[in-house]
Design a protein that fits this description.
The protein is built from 13 helices and eleven strands. It has about 300 residues and is of the alpha/beta class. Among the domains are: about 90 residues, Orthogonal Bundle (Arc Repressor Mutant, subunit A), CATH 1.10.10.10; about 100 residues, Periplasmic binding protein-like II (D-Maltodextrin-Binding Protein, domain 2, 3-Layer(aba) Sandwich). The strands form three sheets. Strands 3, 4, 5, 6, 9, 10 and 11 form a seven-stranded mixed β-sheet that branches. It has a two-stranded antiparallel sheet with strand order 1-2. α1 packs across α2, α1 packs across α4 and α2 crosses α3. The longest helix is centred in the first third of the chain and has 23 residues. The chain is elongated.
């Protein structure tokens, strides 16, 4: 029903955000892109692209975008089976920022022939992108259920509550009490971030509500903690060197938060992504805390 040039044009417009960008990517003119999109919209009887800046997909356009991605991944897998070269396929997936900063780049680097289009979201919400059909795979803190997806337990990313030594001396002379935590500035990644609340409850049995700074970047968490701006939960792989050199202290040694992580992948795309799944699992084994044997 859909010609390859039309799907390629739609995919390129949504990938680059503009008709001009799509034209440059496909080495054609912008009017040629417009003509292909218009014909595809006439076939479907509905708009596929919102002409905003950048361009956005309608619901139907998003489904066709995913179809184009699936076709590209299948073509890549077929070429590999036949020992033939193939153009890079595009994969849109959702990943949490801390995984991206600590171990997921290694997983991406373990495969060839895929151009990654990453959506960064909290691990508690990344699976929602799969449920809406906006990505083909995701790193999630929950195993599902997500209809039509395979689930692979990866392990857990461990977090330490850390702050600068001077900050600890000023705010927690008796250790992290509920009273001290209620007054000391806290670092938060976003409104979705619940790690600090979980740790405070585990540490004190209470639910302090401290003032907080919102810093939506993993590296900023480390930098802000070292600068004495506040305290926060930092991934063990990133916190380790700073704990070793004394620029950060563990606020309550032995009390960590382990966030389980799962690789969720569309069952339709799973065969074409078998090499990526293997790379994700290998990188997770190297960097995450092992899960219980029955979960792996």
């Amino acid at each position: 029903m859909f010609t390859d040039p039309a799907l390629l044009a739609l995919h390129a417009v949504l990938r680059t955000g503009s008709f001009e960008g799509a034209a440059a990517q496909l080495n054609v003119t912008p009017p040629a892109i417009s003509q292909r999109i218009r014909k595809l919209e006439e076939q479907m009887g509905t708009p596929l692209i919102r002409r905003t800046t950048p361009c956005e997909a309608t619901d139907t356009g998003a489904r066709l975008y995913r179809h184009a991605e699936e076709m590209g991944l299948l073509a890549r897998a077929l070429a590999a089976d036949l020992g033939q070269p193939a153009a890079p396929a595009t994969l849109r997936l959702a990943v949490n920022a801390d995984s991206l900063a600590t171990w997921f780049i290694e997983a991406m680097a373990g495969v060839e022939g895929i151009s990654f289009d990453l959506v960064v979201d909290d691990e508690d919400h990344s699976a929602d992108w799969l449920r809406r059909g906006e990505v083909l795979a995701a790193i999630s803190a929950h195993p599902g259920p997500v209809q039509g997806c395979d689930v692979h337990a990866l392990g857990a990313l461990r977090y330490h509550a850390t702050c600068a030594p001077g900050f600890a001396a000023r705010h927690f002379p008796q250790g992290p009490t509920a009273e001290g935590l209620a007054r000391a500035p806290c670092l938060s990644f976003s409104a979705k971030d619940r790690l600090q609340s979980q740790w405070m409850h585990a540490a004190t049995g209470a639910h302090p509500s401290p003032p907080h700074h919102t810093l939506p970047a993993t590296s900023a968490f480390i930098d802000a903690a070292r600068a004495g701006l506040g305290w926060g939960l930092n991934p063990a792989p990133l916190a380790a060197p700073h704990l070793a050199d004394g620029s950060l202290v563990d606020m309550k040694p032995g009390l960590t938060v382990d966030r389980p992580l799962y690789w969720l992948v569309s069952r339709l795309a799973a065969p074409a992504l078998a090499d990526l799944t293997a790379s994700v699992r290998a990188a997770a084994r190297a960097h995450l805390v092992p899960p219980a044997p029955e979960e792996f």
